[in-house]
Amino acid sequence: MKGYKFVIADDDSVISLDIAQMLQENGHTVVGIANDGLDAIKLTEEMDPDVVLMDIQMPLFDGLSAAQTILKTNPNTCVICCTAFADDEFIKRAESIGIAGYLVKPINERSLISTIGISLSMTKRISEHRQQIAKTKNKLRDMQIVDQACAEISETQGVEHYKAYRLLQKTSMDRGISMIKLAEMIIENSEKGRLRILKEKLANALDCSTAEAWASISNKSISDSISCIEAANILLEDAKRNA
Fold first, then answer.
1. What pLDDT band is residue 120 in, cutting at 50, 70 and 90?
2. Element spanning 112, H or E
3. Domain enclosing residue 198, as ranges
4. Confidence (pTM)
5. pLDDT in tens, 208-224
6. Is residue 119 domain-shared with residue 15, that is, in the same domain?
7. Distance between CA atoms of 15 and 55, rounded to whole angstroms?
8. Residue 106: is the preceding peptide bond cis (ω within 30°)?
9. Residues 114, 209: one domain?
């Protein structure tokens, strides 16, 4: 196992020093020692360790709460909890937080090194799985953007969807720009055009300036947490009903 950077969090300095010595003898580096959960969070932010060895029972901020805070900010950090007992409730909460492993005190060198290896492997697998999910989500998003752009091309140019896709693909190659970027530009321009038309229609319906119509659309969009186009359509329908 290559050398890793560690933060140790335990309110018992004797235990912290014993663990630090075992780690150093096995080629690892201890970059910080904390005596409570708040110090552990601060040290993790400052030192960016590979592994945090976290005692559960500590003053000010308990180990599981500190671990939860650390993993929200640094989900790829390997956190191992150290406890005098490990009942079902503890294990369930630790798993829900994302703890990679746990050690039952008193800690010996063999169990320490073994648990570190297993926990690091688990953290790596979880990180890779998380990255794969993110890639899949991005791929689906890209497909939706391209599909939306093709629908816009199909509608404006009166061509079938597959021909719109080929046109998008050819334009992308001719201009040396990615299909996703080109699709985003088409969607943005289309939405701007629709919004401009809706703004003008609303100004006519309300007998006001386009600036006043735009202010109404913006306020509606913000207050209802909807898009400007949705807000404009709602206001336009209201104006027609009240005419």
1. very high
2. helix 109-157
3. 192-243
4. 0.63
5. 998 898 899 989 889 89
6. yes
7. 10
8. yes
9. no
